[in-house]
Amino acid sequence: xxxxxxxxxxxxxxxxxxxxxxxxxxxxxxxxxxxxxxxxxxxxxxxxxxxxxxxxxxxxxxxxxxxxxxxxxxxxxxxxx
Length: 81
Description:
mainly alpha
């Protein structure tokens, strides 16, 4: 069951990425990095919200939630450097 929730988190990212990609290519080159960081901030927020919902519904254990949030923290840190 835990693998299913992790897959859903990945699908959320892919869906959100496709929705924003069209807007991103219209941004002037100089502003793309900022736009991408802003977009990814929204993606990370959506992933965290979905993860909380899955935990609250009992589909994800607290251990899985912590591991996924740790990975999200690392991704966010990489993006901000």
